[in-house]
Specification:
By secondary structure, the chain is an alpha/beta fold. The chain is built from seven helices and 13 strands. The two termini are 30 Å apart.
């Protein structure tokens, strides 16, 4: 399986830190966040990686090169104009090919076992699998699940329907190549251009529920928390 790391964003909420470095290069425990993600992919035997670039993308390319130094092979999908998650994945189609692939947001620190996620996806008859978790106190639930299936995806979900639960997306998913029939090469969000239309088409989407460590490093507070967590649980690596 190949993977795509989404690394084109501006990191606006982390300014002024991200005025000079892109968010995937922020230091966590002595190495860039993106290298933690690459290490996690390698643990799942994923060594073919596509990274999309826009904001300060040259810095990411300079640090990672072709990936040889880190035991992987990296291809870059450069976006002269930022394309969002939907357009960005569509632009990378020539490199992702015609097999299932994993998408990993470039600002996530988690201990989610990717091999377990991949095995879960392969056991389901689904067009995509989303990693989800219970929302924290300050998080808006965006995913409604019923058993191990996603039944709704919206920015605002109402009261829980019978026998369903409200969850929060983790920024990690697996997609079947059928995704490319839905996506367009223009700025778009993969949820609104692929997942929601797929649900309307009665396509099945899996929900992999995880309750372990996860941090969306989008604010200074989240970054501080991530660094503290890493120093506590991996002191020998700091």
């Amino acid at each position: 399986m190949k993977a795509m790391i989404l690394a084109a964003g501006f990191g606006t909420r982390l300014r002024p830190l991200t005025d000079r470095i892109p968010k995937p290069l922020i230091d966590i425990g002595g190495k860039p966040l993106v290298l933690h993600i690459i290490d996690q992919l390698k643990q799942a035997q994923i060594t073919e990686i596509v990274i999309n670039l826009h904001y300060l993308g040259g810095q990411i390319q300079a640090v990672l090169g072709d990936g040889t130094a880190f035991g992987v092979h990296i291809t870059y999908s450069e976006e002269p104009e930022i394309l969002g998650t939907g357009g960005g994945v569509k632009r990378a189609q020539p490199w992702l090919g015609d097999a299932p692939f994993l998408i990993f947001n470039g600002d996530i620190l988690t201990d989610l076992p990717l091999t377990t996620l991949i095995d879960f996806h392969r056991q389901q008859s689904v067009i995509s699998t989303l990693a989800v978790r219970e929302p924290r106190r300050n998080q808006q639930p965006t995913v409604r699940v019923q058993g191990n299936r996603v039944i709704d995806l919206r920015e605002q979900l109402g009261n829980t329907a019978p026998h369903s639960a409200l969850m929060h997306g983790m920024g990690i998913m697996i997609c079947e190549p059928l995704v490319f029939q839905y996506l367009t090469p223009t700025f778009s969000d993969i949820i609104t251009t692929f997942h929601l239309p797929a649900l309307r088409d009665r396509q099945a989407i899996g929900a992999f529920i995880y309750d372990g460590y996860w941090n969306d490093i989008g604010t200074p507070e989240a970054l501080t928390a991530a660094r503290k967590h890493y120093a506590r649980y991996h002191p020998h690596l700091c």
